[in-house]
Design brief:
- InterPro entries: Ald_DH/histidinol_DH, Ald_DH_C, Ald_DH_CS_GLU, Ald_DH_N, Aldehyde_DH_dom.
- One of its GO terms (molecular function) is oxidoreductase activity, acting on the aldehyde or oxo group of donors, NAD or NADP as acceptor.
- Belongs to the aldehyde dehydrogenase family.
- It holds the Pfam family Aldedh.
- The chain is an alpha/beta fold and about 475 residues long.
- It has two domains: about 280 residues, Aldehyde Dehydrogenase, Chain A, domain 1; about 190 residues, Aldehyde Dehydrogenase, Chain A, domain 2, CATH 3.40.309.10.
- It is about 40% helix and about 20% strand.
- The strands form five sheets. A seven-stranded mixed sheet has the order 15-16-17-14-13-18-19, with helices on both faces. A six-stranded mixed sheet has the order 10-9-8-11-12-20, with helices on both faces. It has a three-stranded mixed sheet with strand order 1-5-4, with no helix packed on it.
- Helix 2 crosses helix 7 and helix 3 packs antiparallel against helix 7.
- The longest helix is centred in the first third of the chain and has 17 residues.
- The protein is globular and about 65 Å long.
- Bound molecules: nicotinamide-adenine-dinucleotide.
- The site of nicotinamide-adenine-dinucleotide (NAD) has 29 residues, from helix 8 and helix 9.
- Nicotinamide-adenine-dinucleotide (NAD) binds next to helix 8 and helix 9.
């Protein structure tokens, strides 16, 4: 079998030899076979990448000083180059992290371009300064300058989209970037680098060094970095927040979740009508999405019907190789991740929750890190499976007696990232959504919208990505009193 091998890093607009001989080996979650390797970033590689990003940022006629129009044109060229590589990108991602190709085609191969074009539009419209009349007479010129060099750290579950959540608004604002992909998803970062080069993004504006958590920690604390943008686990986010707190370094943290899907008692539970939306909001990407509603809150008056609906949904899913177009649930991204999911299934059983379907490994798949879609009924919200992020295709069904109790259960969580409300009454759904302690909520569906801020409260993070609001996270304001 041929493997994918890369030998260099994309730094300062070109391919540079790595500083160490260490390599990251990529193993397919579908087959458990080695599918290639890339150099493992060393501190010296990050030093070179940060130096390139600093020089590009400081260039008096460079990216950070360009007009919004000029940056927008290059960002759109990057979107075009990514369009050309979309099929390759899908293959690269699904072969590394087990994301079903049907999901990768809709999200990973589309979202970065959508965001680049959206933020290119905002870069064009944005004057980056305004003069305001003062309350005490006179006026003030308020300028908005790019914040500087951004250290962007991304996880493996949506490696391209989550990188774009950072660089799209950051590039629009005029920042330069050092991106550190996860060791699980590296090949796609080379396709991205090729697109960056082909688009003519100036040297040093985007630099990419894959590596593990130590390298990420090194980047976070690097003296040449002005801002950190992180997506990943809450535990890592807390470490990063501590370091950034000490350094007084601006940081955006998009962390874990344990969102509630509140099924109201007037819902139409016909899977033919809502199955697709229910799947997308609770089990997408093999359950490895931060915002999924993995606690299903079910009205006791219709509890058995809700159990039957989710059991039916889980039982209807095609589980298999992520590269098969008909697959809906692929493998877990790593064997470590499968161990984690299986340990939670054991905890759920131990606590007394009842498995209605799944709970094991699919009998017909003898290789790959697969876990059957699993539904737990009779879950108490205090159980570990209801409080902790599992990050796999495992849902917990929790009964409630009134809307106010459902809201209280939804909010009895250390997290607050997503959530959904399922109802036949739009206004009732919105009224419930308003009371959920969370950064985002969907009514009868969940689809993050690039034009609206996305992020969490409580243990789910700090700050917001997406929407015009994200530009603020990559800008620094100055008031010049006139
Ligand atoms: P992780 O925290 O282990 O790793 C994420 C990234 O951070 C990787 O690139 C890793 O190398 C790096 N890293 C880890 N520890 C670090 C540290 N101390 N300093 C600097 N870098 C560090 O998370 P993961 O397992 O790769 O990803 C899954 C997690 O990401 C889940 O908790 C999920 O909820 C979360 N996530 C959140 C969002 C969101 O938008 N809120 C989106 C996707 C995933």
């Amino acid at each position: 079998m041929t493997t994918t091998e890369f030998e260099q890093f994309y730094i300062n607009g070109d391919w540079q030899p790595p500083k160490s001989n260490n390599r990251i080996t990529v193993v397919s979650p579908n087959t458990e076979q080695v599918i290639g390797s890339v150099p493992d970033g060393a501190e010296g590689d990050v030093d070179a990448a940060v130096a390139a990003a600093r020089a590009a940022f400081a260039d008096p006629s460079g990216w950070s000083r360009w007009s919004g129009d000029k940056r927008a044109a290059v960002m759109e060229r990057l979107a075009d180059e990514l369009d050309k590589r979309a099929p390759e990108m899908v293959q690269a991602i699904s072969s590394q992290n087990g994301m079903p190709v049907a999901v990768a085609e809709k999200l990973e191969a589309v979202f970065p371009q959508l965001l680049l074009r959206y933020y290119a539009g905002l870069a064009r419209e944005n004057a980056f300064e305004e003069t305001r009349p003062g309350l005490l007479g006179g006026s003030t010129l308020v300028t908005s300058a790019p914040i500087g060099v951004v250290g962007a750290i991304v996880p493996w579950n949506f490696p391209q989209a989550l990188a774009a959540f950072k660089y799209a608004p950051g590039l629009a604002a005029g920042c330069t970037f050092v991106i550190k992909p996860s060791p699980e998803t590296v090949f796609d970062s080379y396709l991205f680098a090729e697109a960056v080069k082909a688009a003519g993004i100036p040297a040093g504006v985007i630099n990419i060094v894959p590596g593990g958590r130590e390298l990420g920690a090194y980047l976070v604390a690097h003296p040449g970095v002005d801002k950190v943008a992180f997506t990943g686990s809450t535990a890592a986010g807390r470490n990063i927040a501590e370091v950034c707190g000490r350094l007084l370094r601006p940081v955006t943290l998009e962390l874990g979740g344990k969102s509630a899907a509140i099924i109201l008692d007037d819902v139409d539970l016909d899977l033919a009508k809502i199955g697709e939306q229910l799947f997308a909001a609770t089990l997408l990407n093999n359950g490895q999405v931060c915002y999924l509603g993995t606690r299903i809150l079910a009205p006791r008056s219709r509890y058995q019907e809700v159990v039957d609906t989710f059991t039916g949904l889980a039982g209807s899913l095609n589980v298999g190789d992520a590269l098969d177009a008909t697959t809906q649930i692929g493998p877990m991204a790593s064997s470590r991740q499968r161990d984690r999911v299986e340990s939670y299934i054991a905890k759920g059983k131990g606590d007394g929750a009842k498995i209605t379907i799944g709970g094991g490994r699919p009998a017909d798949l003898d290789a790959g890190w697969f876990v059957e879609p699993t539904i737990f009924a009779d879950v108490d919200n205090n159980y570990a499976i209801a409080q902790e992020e599992i990050f796999g295709p495992v849902l917990s069904l929790i009964p409630y007696d009134s809307d106010s109790e459902a809201i209280a259960i939804a909010n009895a969580s250390d997290y607050g990232l997503g959530g959904t409300v399922w109802t036949s009454d739009h206004d009732r759904g919105v009224a419930v959504a308003r009371q959920i302690e969370s950064g985002t909520v969907g009514i009868n569906n969940y689809l993050p919208d690039p034009t609206a801020p996305f992020g969490g409260v409580k243990g789910s993070g700090l700050g917001r990505e997406l929407g015009p609001e994200a530009l603020l996270a990559y800008s620094v304001q100055k008031s010049i009193y006139l």
